[in-house]
Amino acid sequence: MNSFRCKLPFIHYSIENFLNPVEYKKISDFYNKLNFSLKHTDLYKFYQTDELTENKNILFFKKKVLKICKEIENHENIHTLDESEDIMAVNLKINGSEMIRNNLDIFGSFYRADNYLLCHDDCLENRKYAFS
């Protein structure tokens, strides 16, 4: 059943004003200096950077994303949490695999006019959330 669960529609969240103007300027300046490579398969065609997770220039961004993920987990699991269970146990029960704490993959990307991303099952073993 675990493989079927992964194919169910995803809940989504929209977070208004995630970055304040100073943070936006910082991330925008950082983004505009990055090198991008074409990524192309039958499912997608777009430009992407190398992994950025450990880059100290975006540590503030990583911390904000992790905070939001934690808030979402607390909100999603509040009704399923038994007194004897912790949040990781609930994640294991709901998703069939544990989310690795504080583990993010962060890339920059952009799409040109002829680029695309087709709908597809994007479930990866240790992925709980995807954001853009």
Automatic annotation (TrEMBL):
Tree of life domain: Eukaryota
One Gene Ontology biological process: regulation of translational termination
Xref: InterPro entries: uS12_prolyl_hydroxylase (IPR051842)
A molecular function (GO) term: peptidyl-proline dioxygenase activity
Gene3D superfamilies attached to this UniProt entry: q2cbj1_9rhob like domain (2.60.120.620)
One CC-aspect GO term: cytoplasm
Protein name (record): Uncharacterized protein
